[in-house]
Amino acid sequence: MTTSSQPALLKGRGLPDYTAITPDQVSAEIPGLLKALEADFAALEQTLQDQLNQGQTLEWQAVMPPLQSIGERLRWSWGVVSHLNAVCNSPELREAHAAQQPEVVRFSNRLGQSAVLHQALEQLRNQSGASLDAAQCRILDAELLSMQQRGVGLQGEAQTAFNQASEQLAELSTSFSNHVLDATQAWSLVLHNIEEVAGLPDRALETLAAAARDAGDHHRNGQEATGEQGPWRLGLDMPRYIPFLTHAENRGLREKVYRAHVGRASQGDLDNSPLIESILRLRGEQASRLGYSHWAELSLASKMADDVNAVEALLEELRAAAKPAAEREIDALRDCARRHHAPEADDLQPWDVTYWAEKLRQEEFDLNQEALRPWFPLPQVLDGLFNLCSRLFGITIHAADSEAPVWHPDVRFFRVSDRDGTPLAAFYLDPYSRPASKRGGAWMDECLNRSRAEDGSMTLPVAYLICNQTTPTDTAPSLMSFEEVETLFHEFGHGLQHMLTTVNYPQAAGINNVEWDAVELPSQFMENWCLDRATLMGMARHWQTGEPLPEADYQKLLRARTFMSGCATLRQVHFALTDLRLHSQWTPKLGISPDALRRELAPATTVIPPIADDHFLCAFSHIFAGGYSAGYYSYKWAEVLSADAFSAFEEMGLDQEEQVQATGQRFRDTVLSLGGSRSPAEIYQAFRGRAASTDALIRQSGLTAAAA
Fold first, then answer.
1. For the whole model, what pTM was predicted?
2. Is 334 helix (H, G, I), strand (E, B) or coil?
3. CA distance 647 to 536
4. Of all helices (H) and strands (E), which one includes residue 501?
5. 3-class state of residue 451 by DSSP
6. Farthest-apart Cα atoms in the chain, separation
7. Which of 77, 201, 286, 457 has minimal Cβ neighbours within 10 Å of its Cβ?
8. pLDDT at 455
């Protein structure tokens, strides 16, 4: 229990008491925490300096655990603030976060630029190498590279400028994210006429009506909004945007909402365009100060890919396979529109693609994605996911909702145990969209990391799993689209790597110290199981009747797996190549805007070029407000690994239970267990017996014929 002498924000261990952590507490307590940590670090520096001056041989225990303790206290407290800022955003919390962030960045730079610590780590690495295990050596190598990239080798004015730029970049990143959130929230459109929502399934109508009720909109007759009669409030959050773009027959409204979505955060006070140029300019300057030719070179120094050329080669391999397939797919959409005598058949625009893709999907596979939702209620999907994890990895997952504090009534808490009942980990699940206060998208983050204290006690890992799926209604649970099912499996894959780690050094446990372009391997690997017969048919039961998903629908999902995969692959290549070129080629001296550079790439990486109003970069939070700068390619890099990993199960036979379980155990013992203690290439080799190739991904994507 939190006492008055120990504010909830400074607890520093265990599960946070989220509701007790207020914006006022952030403002009041973070400065004192940073001051205390500064004093502790200064004392550690003095101890290390004395040992270095006396010529003593440094020991791991004298350096790394004390350093980790300081870093963990900050990670725990500031991590809770950042987490709440993402899932319970409010003007007060946002202001408190923004006010303290510069000092947090300064303290991080202080640690990263300590000459004494750098000297101690170098000596520890060089002198004690023979007595350190492989994980310890890898941790030290990563720490030394990190310090180099945080400016430890800079002096005087160069270091001052570096630090100022670091603070500016953190501030710009937060502003970018806030602008996207605000712009998404700011746009809405109330529809009153049934003709305006023609084509939308009942589920989507109810979601739009619920948004209208929340906003206080009423029907013309004064009654509260309903799915049948409206009004319906359209918005740019995914649970409202995607169904409208997919099903709305009103082309003019599809265009309107599409233009609003791709134009987010590109106008007025929320315009991210100047922030993008500032971020790219500052990153370029930072890279130059550190001796790199550009930010992409700096980014790739800590990744699995060797260099920019290696990434471009992979993207070109995928682009060459995807472009012809994407062109055929768009032609097929035009033909579909012609069969329906649609005027847009000869002028297909971006706001038409999703709509006609759904029409063609229904024609070719008789597959209506919305009609499948009743077979995927969240509780059953969770049961299916947990049963799969038991089957593959020998773990048991059980609900423990009353055993942990939460930040919102929607949030669930689960515990994970080994096959013999030994506790392994726990996780929070925050599944539903809350556009007013919760950042869009889906992600996994660390609540607690696995670590062993000097007294032998263990801290078990706890993960945050955050999604933005369709909310329940008064009459039905959250009925998931198949894409939402895949998203949940994806994030849970990240969670598994965090939770099933056996590494006791927190610096390399779970996802820590895993190269960024390999970190998506477990998540994308888990997505593959959504179409495994035993997994899918085990969880897909009608929420009202209990009837299993008809075999015919399962076969349709299988056949539809590669539907529009050329366009999907090309889209990812477009984003990845844009990111890479912005961070390797763009400078203010280039004479063109970042948006113009993106458009130069469009002819080779798109089939329908971006419209003039498309300011996608202004909402590209992955690279401007997340960790994917010069790293968005990681999704495709890791997808090569994940497809190749899943093919190991396919080669054994997915119905060969003994082999599936043995291969699953090997995956757990390597990819999920070893985390960042060894290189991803070495770990993958241990699992697969060889390096990965693109063959499985190209085959899975149905692009083999196009590549031939």
1. 0.86
2. helix
3. 18
4. none
5. strand
6. 86
7. 457
8. 85
Q: Is 7 helix (H, G, I), strand (E, B) or coil?
A: coil
Residue position matching structure tokens 């923004």? 98
String of b and e for 206-231 (b: at least 16 CB within 10 Å)?
bbbbbbbeeeebeeeeeeebbbebbb
Query: 94-115: buried (b, 16+ CB within 10 Å) or exposed (e) per residue?
Result: bebbeebbeebbbbbbbbbbbe
Res. 436 pLDDT band, cuts 50 70 90: confident
Report helix, strand and coil shares of the chain as percent, to nearest 5: 65, 10, 30
Q: Strand, helix or coil at 445?
A: strand
3-state secondary structure of 458: strand
Indicate if the pLDDT at residue 705 is higher than 60.
Answer: no
CB 482 within 8 A of CB 422: no
The question of whether 195 is a catalytic residue gets the answer no
Choice among 72, 344, 446, 491 that is catalytic = 491
Structure token digits, residue 323:
């472009």
Who contacts 308 (Cβ-Cβ below 8 Å, separation ≥6)?
296, 297, 300, 580, 584
Please name the helix (run of DSSP H) or strand (run of DSSP E) that holds residue 609, with its range, or none. none
What pLDDT score was predicted for residue 6? 81
C-alpha distance from residue 605 to each of 566, 608, 609, 619 (Å) = 11, 9, 9, 19
627: which 2 tokens? 């960790």
SS (H, E, C) 503-553: CCCHHHCCCCCCCCCCCCHHHHHHHHHHHCHHHHHHHCECCCCCCECCHHH
* Residue 552: both structure tokens together: 């015919």
Task: Categorize the per-residue pLDDT at 129 as very low, low, confident or very high, splitting at 50, 70 and 90.
Answer: low
pLDDT in tens, 630-656: 999 999 998 999 999 999 999 999 999
Structural domains in the chain plus CATH codes: 8-153 (1.20.1050.40), 187-264 (no CATH)
Q: Quick one: pLDDT at residue 291?
A: 97
Whether the Cβ atoms of residue 322 and residue 330 lie closer than 8 Å to each other: no
Number of H-type helices and E-type strands within the chain: 27, 9
Average pLDDT, the chain: 94
Relative to beta strand 232-235, strand 395-399 is unpaired
Question: Strand 423-432 to strand 462-469: parallel, antiparallel, or no bridges (unpaired)?
Answer: parallel
Question: In this predicted structure, what is the pLDDT of residue 366?
Answer: 85
Say if residues 322 and 569 touch (Cβ distance below 8 Å).
yes
CA 258 – CA 354 distance, rounded (Å): 11
User: Average pLDDT, stretch 117-134?
Assistant: 87
Contact 141, 126 (CB under 8 A): no
- The position carrying tokens 């909310």 is 471
What would the two tokens of residue 540 be? 């897909």
Answer for the pair 87, 106: CB distance below 8 angstroms, yes or no. no
Report how far Cα 273 is from the mean position of its chain's Cα atoms. 23
